[in-house]
Backbone:
């Protein structure tokens, strides 16, 4: 196949499949920021794999002209782990909803983070279950009324940014669908980061839980004087605040999992079945 | 008359050295040219509880663990009480520690009281050397060439001079004790025979060896008995040969990462046992739907739930065949022996790659953990199949990942390939993987996916057949019972009973043509299985619509050849 050497543009990452999201859904902003970020990075589409779970947001691979996996509800991270371990040359983005990553898939998140796989995980956090039509989610605030919490949920919400920090993610940020330019920059930085990068995007569900007004009034950039290499300061900023802070909370360098696992790469030998079997003689 | 086929059973407290004594003795016997077949079972706890080990040694190939116990080595009273009734009634030998056991009168049994504990503690000041003392006693008694034992011990402790010295002394003490203090009164001799370079492997060893030979370069697993050794051996081997072994956080992550790696173009496998298979089930369906190949080893153990983790049951056949929601093609393979496990796991990889489906490989506690001697597999016979890739033309002209073909198999692009971009979908999809017209897609894609099994079914070879060519009684078994069934059939044939057995290895799709022929050729079909409900018997009945005579055993232990033999004889005698 002849590969064009022209610079890639956002359009080159867009597939022929039209997004099925509701008009105004926050996930549109995440999708187009992703296209633009991939173009900024000039990554070959065939070198990129977008992996998702199940949910409205998890439909995203179909809309990307890259390799993709639409896996099971909650299982994007295991699949991303297998891809990255098997093929460190690929750029892997794991994307999904708050229910997908932090309810049914929550068991995988801290492990992927602490291992420090070189992947970017994007949570499209709408604080509700979109696809199953308006039940409360693990990030819904206390008192959130939904079809499955008609009297208001009494559950303390999960804080994905804080969780990522606690679990050992080496790059942690928050974005907002209402701030697409910043979103694009964060995705670029998250992909570039060598290690486990986690980006939580407040991505309103216009159909069942429209939080645009709420966030428009509350978002604020992380103060300029914050040092993202200062872990404790990052944790402090990640605690519930008056404002919803946007930007990079934390950035650190740690050996990358797939490289450590492949420590013998330089001295590897071909598998010799005869020699292997002879050990049992 | 001197005898050189011996069944030896050792019993004692878990952690006391029963298993290691058995293993050392087995390896040494194999090194001097004997065939061996072992079975082991130990409590799920680390210390305490009852463990026992059985080895059958003989100059001719041994197919099963044996019926009665010729030599019982009782480390403690419990072992004596538990196993004494299995002693060979005519020519049994009881070896015991008189400080632990006071045996009742055994008129026809040869008794060898040996104070193992005292020898280890007082004479050697090396309590943990008891297992080697016992090994030495057995070697001395049965004339096993001591050099094979010293060689083995030297190899094991070559980096720990003090332990090596202590162990060699313990061995010496055992041999000397047997020669000086015991008067040989039993007929068993393991005199050196022609040394043939046989391997001694466990089922799990063979599974790893075969998987790596087939090209597996990604393994993921979560520890579980009796599959953990596969994870451990993969972790030791894969990193050095350019592969990756991954201890996942749970079984869903294990199979998920395996499918991720396979999607990315690397042959991948996971291994688990029943509880883990349950957790992997949702992903089995995804593998079938997205047509991403994988190999799932299920080393079955007695269930349900945590059940009896260290005991045998062929209880997961239904799950392997039917587990999961919706309908998807899958291949189920069950090997019959350790050597067969090597070949069948290669087959499993080849079929997974060729047909882009999940392959469930049913080992079990007895097969995974038992050791058998075998000649080194003839590696020139190994064939490795890789998945179909799209050619340039397909990539240039609007590549269709799920192109509808006659065989059902569509070329699969690997990430990194320009023009091959597609989404591996869990949703119903069309040829391109698009999910926007599910009704029309489902209509054509379900048969497309199942066509792969139909194609495979036509290619399946006849299963191995044993016994009389003019059989009136037919035995159909599956999995690790193959040796016991074969031995039972051979014994019955020797007695003039017209019986034969077939043992299919691919259980889904079944080689129906051959099984049907076999069923038609006999009057009665017997199906032995180590489970309560007769899962294979019901499966056969559902396909072939025939009545079958079931033999079921569910006590956590394998069949002996004698148990199957008795049933065949009953049927032959019209009972
Ligand atoms: C095992 C399993 N359980 C339940 C579901 C049903 N289900 C599909 S998506 C979803 C939740 C989606 O919420 P979220 O991940 O936040 O994504 P959103 O739709 O809001 O983008 C659920 C419960 C499923 N597909 N699989
Ligand atoms: S239901 Fe909500 S999350 Fe789903 S597409 Fe519509 S707006 Fe987006």
Residues:
């Amino acid at each position: 196949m002849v590969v064009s050497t022209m610079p890639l543009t956002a359009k080159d990452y867009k597939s022929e499949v039209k997004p099925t999201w509701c008009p105004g859904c926050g996930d549109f902003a995440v999708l187009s920021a992703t296209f633009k970020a991939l173009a900024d990075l000039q990554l070959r589409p065939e070198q990129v794999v977008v992996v998702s779970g199940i949910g409205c947001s998890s439909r995203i691979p179909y809309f990307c002209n890259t390799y993709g996996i639409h896996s099971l509800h909650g299982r994007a991270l295991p699949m991303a782990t297998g891809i990255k371990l098997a093929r460190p040359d690929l750029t892997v983005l794991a994307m999904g909803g708050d229910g997908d990553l932090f309810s049914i898939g929550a068991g995988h998140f801290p492990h992927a983070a602490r291992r420090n796989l070189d992947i970017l995980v994007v949570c499209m956090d709408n604080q509700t279950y979109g696809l199953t039509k308006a039940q409360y989610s693990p990030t819904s605030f206390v008192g959130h009324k939904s079809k499955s919490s008609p009297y208001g949920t009494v559950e303390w919400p999960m804080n994905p940014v804080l969780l990522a920090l606690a679990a050992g993610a080496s790059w942690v940020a928050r974005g907002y669908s209402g701030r697409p330019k910043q979103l694009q920059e964060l995705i670029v930085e998250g992909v570039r980061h060598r290690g486990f990068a986690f980006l939580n995007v407040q991505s309103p569900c216009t159909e069942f839980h429209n939080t645009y007004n709420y966030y428009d009034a509350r978002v604020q950039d992380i103060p300029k004087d914050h040092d993202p290499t200062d872990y404790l300061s990052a944790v402090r900023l990640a605690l519930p605040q008056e404002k919803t802070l946007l930007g990079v909370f934390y950035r650190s360098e740690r050996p990358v999992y797939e490289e450590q696992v492949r420590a013998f790469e330089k001295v590897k030998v071909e598998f010799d079945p005869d020699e292997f079997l002879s050990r049992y003689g | 008359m001197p005898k050189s086929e011996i069944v030896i059973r050792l019993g004692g407290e878990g952690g006391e050295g029963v298993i290691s004594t058995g293993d050392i003795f087995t390896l040494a016997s194999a090194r001097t040219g004997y065939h061996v077949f072992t079975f082991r079972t130990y409590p799920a706890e680390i210390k305490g509880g009852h463990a026992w080990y059985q080895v059958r040694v003989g100059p001719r190939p041994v197919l099963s663990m044996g019926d009665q116990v010729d030599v019982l080595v009782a480390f403690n009273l419990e072992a004596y009480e538990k196993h004494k009734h299995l002693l060979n009634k005519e020519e049994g030998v009881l070896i015991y520690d008189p400080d632990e056991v006071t045996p009742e009168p055994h008129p026809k049994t040869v008794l060898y009281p040996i104070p193992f504990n005292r020898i280890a503690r007082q004479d050697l000041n090396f309590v943990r050397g008891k297992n080697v003392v016992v090994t030495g006693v057995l070697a001395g008694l049965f004339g096993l060439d001591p050099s094979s034992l010293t060689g083995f011990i030297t190899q094991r402790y070559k980096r720990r001079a003090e332990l090596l010295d202590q162990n060699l002394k313990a061995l010496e003490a055992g041999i000397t004790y047997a020669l000086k203090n015991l008067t040989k009164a039993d007929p068993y001799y393991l005199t050196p025979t022609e040394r043939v370079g046989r391997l001694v492997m466990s089922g799990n060893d063979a599974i790893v060896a075969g998987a790596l030979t087939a090209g597996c370069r990604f393994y993921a697993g979560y520890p579980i008995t009796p599959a953990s050794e596969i994870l451990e051996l993969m972790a030791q081997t894969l990193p050095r040969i350019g592969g990756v072994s991954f201890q996942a956080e749970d079984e869903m992550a294990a199979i998920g990462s395996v499918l991720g790696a396979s999607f990315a173009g690397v042959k991948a496998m996971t291994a688990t046992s029943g509880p883990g298979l349950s957790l992997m089930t949702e992903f089995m369906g995804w593998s079938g739907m997205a047509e991403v190949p994988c190999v799932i080893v299920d080393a079955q153990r007695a269930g349900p739930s945590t059940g009896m983790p260290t005991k045998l049951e062929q209880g997961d056949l239904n799950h392997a065949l039917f587990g999961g929601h919706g309908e998807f093609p899958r291949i189920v393979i069950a090997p019959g022996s350790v050597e067969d496990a090597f070949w069948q796991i290669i087959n499993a990889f080849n079929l997974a790659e060729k047909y882009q489906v999940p392959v469930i490989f049913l080992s079990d506690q007895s097969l995974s953990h038992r050791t058998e001697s075998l000649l080194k597999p003839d590696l020139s016979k190994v064939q490795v199949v890789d998945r179909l890739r799209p050619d340039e033309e397909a990539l240039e002209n609007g590549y269709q990942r799920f192109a509808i073909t006659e065989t059902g198999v569509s070329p699969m692009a690997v990430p990194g390939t320009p023009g091959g971009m597609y989404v591996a979908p869990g949703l119903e999809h069309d040829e391109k993987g698009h999910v926007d017209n599910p009704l029309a897609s489902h209509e054509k894609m379900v048969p497309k996916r199942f066509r792969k099994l139909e194609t495979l079914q036509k290619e399946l070879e006849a299963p191995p057949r044993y016994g009389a060519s003019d059989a009136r009684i037919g035995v159909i078994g599956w999995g690790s019972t193959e040796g016991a069934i074969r031995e039972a059939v051979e014994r019955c044939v020797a007695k003039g009973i017209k019986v034969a057995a077939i043992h299919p290895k691919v259980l889904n799709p079944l080689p129906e043509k051959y099984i049907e022929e076999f069923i038609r050729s006999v009057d009665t079909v017997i199906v032995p299985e180590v489970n309560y409900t007769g899962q294979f018997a019901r499966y056969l009945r559902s396909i072939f619509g025939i009545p079958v005579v079931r033999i079921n055993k569910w006590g956590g232990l394998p069949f002996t050849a004698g148990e199957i033999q008795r049933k065949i004889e009953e049927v032959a005698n019209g009972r």
The mean pLDDT of chain A is 97. Residues 142 and 156 of chain A are 6 Å apart (CA to CA).
